[in-house]
Amino acid sequence: MAKCPNCEKCIADLRSENARLRERLSMAREFAVGRLHVVWRADGMWSVGAAGRMVLSRDGRFEYELHPSDRDEAFLARTRYTLDEALDVALALVEREAKECKACCGSGVRDDGRWGGIADTTPCSECNGTGVAETDGAVEKCECGGKGA
Question: Which residues constitute the domain of residue 103?
Fold first, then answer.
């Protein structure tokens, strides 16, 4: 097997590019992960947020982002993550929602335009993904057949 004549140069170029990209990445203060946003807060901590001032707590529930003067240590402990934790939690949630949506509507992707082409995994509003809708107290098969929208 022939060795690259510029092997040491190639490795040095890759290391240089890696350092440049790491430097730029360290400047980022927000990441979009599906419909979620991972946002730098303070002291190297990050939050996982959704539309409308909601942040994900460590117990998996969304709660309102409090005004800075109303945030106590308990709130910060519940809703702040390291960058790696925040990205892992956001990715896992988006992937789980996509699987649940796939079970509902078959595609795993629902784009109603609110997320700029990024999937919104809200199940069918009539049947909530069950295929059975209730209209005026009567149970009937939903028009979507459990496929969503």
Answer: 7-141
